[in-house]
Amino acid sequence: MLKSMVVVGVISVLGLSFSLPVRSQIQPNITPIVGASTTEISALEMRQYAQILQQFRGIEYKTQQKMAQAIKKGGLSYERFMEIGRNQNNFNYTAGVQASAEELEKFQKTLTEVEKIIAETEDKKKRMIVSQGLELQRFQQIEQIIAKDRDLQERLQQMVQ
Predict the structure, then answer these.
(1) Which residues form a coiled coil (predicted)?
(2) pLDDT tens, per residue, the chain with 161 residues
(3) Which of 50, 51, 63, 106 could serve as 121's disulfide partner, Cβ 3.0–4.6 Å?
(4) In the chain, how many domains are there?
């Protein structure tokens, strides 16, 4: 079960990262705050948050490059890696889509490398959040507040452009 969730996560990250330039494709693994009391964001926190998102772009770009290199080095094409991953997750093998034992071995080794890259990226992002003067929990809270407030989303968009 855990392995299939990891495969879904990796495929989601890879699928998004190779196709969409979004603000944060690999989210830091931070536990959401329950019953948070602060619903306002100071100007300083907004600037810190915007700076962090801008720095995430560079980290994500490097992460995408590393994952692409790991897949290539693993001996599978990007398309084949994704196809095997989708089939592993869905348990939906159709004619002509099944992977050979050799391909499955390459896939597993490559997946392990990609998981390491993702874990390193998450650690980097967490360190970056703290280095910018925010606590991880507050970063998550700000993210939730902005997600619910259209005006803050527009303000943030202007700050990161």
Answers:
(1) 97-124
(2) 434 444 545 555 555 444 333 334 444 444 343 334 467 899 999 999 999 999 999 999 999 999 999 999 999 999 999 999 888 776 655 545 688 889 999 999 999 999 999 999 999 999 999 999 999 999 999 999 999 999 999 999 999 98
(3) 63
(4) 1
